[in-house]
Prior knowledge:
The chain is 39% helix and 16% strand. It is an alpha/beta fold. It has 2 domains: 4-142, Rossmann fold, CATH 3.40.50; 147-410, Rossmann fold, CATH 3.40.50.300. It has an 8-stranded mixed β-sheet, with helices on both faces. Helix 2 (78-88) links the parallel strand 3 and strand 4 (93-99). It is elongated, with a radius of gyration of 26 Å. Mean pLDDT is 80; it is low at 1-17, 55-60, 387-400 and 406-433.
Amino acid sequence: MSLEANHDTERGGRGRAAVATIALIGDDAAAYSEILAALAQIPEPLVEVVELTGDNGDARKRPPEIVIVTLGDDEETWALQIQEIRQGAPRGAVLGAISGQSGGKVRQALRAGADDIFFLPVEPNDLSRCLVRVCETLHGGRAHRATICSIASVAGGVGVSSLALALGFALTRQNAERVALIDLGLQCGTLAAMLDLTPQFTISELVDPTSTIDSLRLESSLVAHKSGLYLLAAPKRIEESEMVSVSTVAAVLEVMRELFDFILIDCGHHLNEALIAAWEQSTQLLYVVEQSVSSVRPAQRFLEMFERLQLTELDLQFVLNRYDPASPFAEEKIATALRRPIAARVPRDDAAFLQFQLECADLARLAPKSPCRLAIDELAAYLSGVERAPVTAAAQSFLARMRVALKRRGASLLNPISGRGLRRAAKPSAADL
């Protein structure tokens, strides 16, 4: 019997732990039915009820990860019951279901060898919390840590949200990984609009300092897109953005990095302490610039601040968006002004990005031959460390530029903040720009 069908099939397992296999044991038929009904109602984890045969030789049957046993009134027999269960499922966990909320019974069940207990009659939320705790313990040895990439710019209108969303689509398509977007452009809330979503819950539901942020609370605030992306949206009201604290952002990322493989953070263009908390947990920071004075000057100010933060473990890279080779603001001049290499450039294609905003779909479908789509795909592959198939000659220049940029990161002229005590970049003259 499988209970997977009772969950949202559109999620397809993304953003959640794997399906937990559960076996039920006990002579109390009423309690057995009650537990089955509660399992069908719980939001997490996804569960599949299987048989405990005592013989795991049949490779076609998944052995249970968790065995739920209804412990009777004779406490003296509990240890023997649990011992027999462990012989049939030596690698699984044992949950005891006991009648009466007695502290003495709880201690007795734990001494008898139960990994955790819950009470009869069953409360679905209590059973869910119990199963989540056990699953996290079982899977802790193979838990992974997500790659977190923040995308920022203190100059508005340079395409931070569009780039974050396009990268999200590319990562999902290339790797079939669990990809999440976090909108920390708290006052704008751009990502929900671009995805044509109207979230019922947002990050505002997670700001209560008296409640711990766990996977249950977090997933109730996530909204799924048909592409497979998940979004933690900005608050519905502008005034609510002031309630999102440093501790909220840090706690959210700590949980999300266990649920997802790749997390993209839209940092907007309003810097605050919450963003710095996000950067402290990020592995990559992409700063987006355009070929204009109004974009490069703020980037210089950002570099000065970034130097003072001394986030030495954060990999800062500059991305030149809407690149136009005919522009008088040449890429070389921008790199000289910033004293940093341009790690990637995304060619300008207004028609493709207009369609991108109208249809909320992957550029691979909307503009498969567009140079901007190719550049975003290569940037996504670089960020995720995925091996790519041989590329065309048109893409070779992009990859060559990326390699050169990474090799030059150690040069003090182009990376004045790679180590402490180095001098700040000199301000460029008007001729440089």
